[in-house]
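User: quick one, fold this
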Amino acid sequence: MIFQLTAKECRISDVSRKHINDYLAKVTKLLSNFAGDLVVLRLTIRKNIDRYHPPKIKTRKRKNYSDLKSALSNFEGSINFRLLKNSFYTNFKGKTIDECLNLGFMCLFKKLRKFKDLHFPAASEYPHRESIRGGVFNE
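Assistant:
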């Protein structure tokens, strides 16, 4: 796998690098049947200048102002993942670098699982349609 990490106006700690290496190991495990030079992953993390307030994922009933105000977004980034002719893009914002990495890689893993299920039915976690419809009743 070809991996490129870019950090703009911020430093990535050793703990965050360990998390990145763990995520990369998980990606290579998911794509074990591909050659290493066919997979390109570019990760960019930068400090968010305008400190955008990300919206909450779930709506909740709020009782006071501190619950109403969402967390600040100190960092933002993107993942560009190229596999054969397909490209997957994820953009993420978060309060810490680790939170950004978690959001970005979870979105990437979701897209990779969908790609793998669509293009490689033998490696899918779901059974093939014929195995569902065939059986005792069709014989």
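User: anything notable?
Assistant: The chain has a mean pLDDT of 78.
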